[in-house]
């Protein structure tokens, strides 16, 4: 199996059907970028792939066990430092990458600061670094670059692109520039 395959996926919340007979494939080793109108089920689909939500029906094959994620919310431990938040999910063989990566992405002065004291864009970078440096076979990113100023966004995209080259990434975005810059394959969920 060299791809993640979803066939006829259905998901409803009470009387609202969010996904109806959705079929899509994600090739291993590439970045796939999902686009679609708000409320069309992009985040729901990501949560089903990660096993956080059950599908109502349909088939799903090829999903790796080791998944890392950047959620729409940063989901950081607010009382821990930026370093500690990343270290919690970073395997031992990558711990030496944490500080240089924080410095690379403009967080060198914030390594030991509690996350609760950081700005939204700084928290976002910590969440992205944590997800990328963890041990994974599939990286899920739900609107990962939102809230970043243009220069920071380019630095973060370059970091993500370099660290995920040849790996399987599924990303949700509303920005065509994100897809172009990350060099991803666009999948419309209209």
How would you describe the overall organization of this protein?
The chain has helices spanning 42-50, 82-87, 98-104, 120-133, 150-164, 176-182, and strands at residues 3-13, 16-27, 31-35, 57-61, 67-70, 138-142, 168-172, 185-188. With 190 residues, the chain is of the alpha/beta class. It has a domain at 1-64 and 165-190: Rossmann fold, CATH 3.40.50. The strands form two sheets. The protein has a five-stranded parallel sheet with strand order 5-6-7-3-8, with helices on both faces. A three-stranded antiparallel sheet has the order 2-1-4, covered by helices on one side. Helix 4 (120-133) runs parallel beside helix 5 (150-164). The mean pLDDT is 95.
- At the fold tier of CATH, the topology name of the domain at 1-64 and 165-190 is Rossmann fold
Q: Stretches where pLDDT falls below 50 for ≥5 residues?
A: none
Reading off the top of the CATH hierarchy, the class of the domain at 1-64 and 165-190 is best stated as: Alpha Beta
* Number of discrete helical segments: 6
Assign the structural class, choosing from mainly alpha, mainly beta, alpha/beta, alpha+beta, or little secondary structure.
Answer: alpha/beta
Please indicate the percent range of residues in DSSP E strands (runs of 2 or more): 25-35%
Q: In the CATH hierarchy, what is the superfamily of the domain at 1-64 and 165-190?
A: P-loop containing nucleotide triphosphate hydrolases
Say how many strands there are.
8
First-residue to last-residue Cα separation:
27 Å
SSE succession? EEEHEEHHHEHEHE
Shape-level CATH architecture of the domain at 1-64 and 165-190: 3-Layer(aba) Sandwich
Largest sheet report: 5 strands, parallel
Q: Roughly how many Å is the radius of gyration?
A: 17 Å
């Amino acid at each position: 199996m060299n791809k993640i395959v979803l066939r006829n996926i259905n998901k409803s919340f009470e009387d609202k059907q969010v996904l109806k007979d959705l079929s899509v494939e994600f090739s291993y080793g590439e970045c796939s970028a999902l686009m679609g109108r708000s409320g069309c089920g992009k985040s729901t689909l990501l949560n089903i792939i990660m096993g956080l939500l059950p599908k109502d029906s349909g088939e799903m094959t090829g999903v790796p066990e080791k998944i890392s994620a950047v959620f729409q919310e940063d989901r950081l431990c607010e009382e821990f430092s930026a370093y500690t938040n990343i270290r919690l999910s970073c395997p031992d063989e990558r711990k030496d990458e944490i500080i240089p990566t924080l410095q690379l992405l403009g967080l060198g002065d914030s390594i030991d600061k509690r996350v609760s004291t950081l700005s939204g864009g700084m928290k976002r970078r910590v969440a992205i670094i944590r997800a990328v440096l963890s041990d994974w076979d599939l990286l899920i990113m739900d609107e990962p670059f939102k809230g970043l100023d243009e220069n920071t966004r380019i630095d973060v995209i370059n970091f993500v692109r370099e660290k995920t080259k040849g790996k399987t990434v599924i990303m949700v975005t509303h920005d065509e520039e994100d897809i172009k810059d990350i060099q991803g394959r666009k999948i419309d969920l209209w």
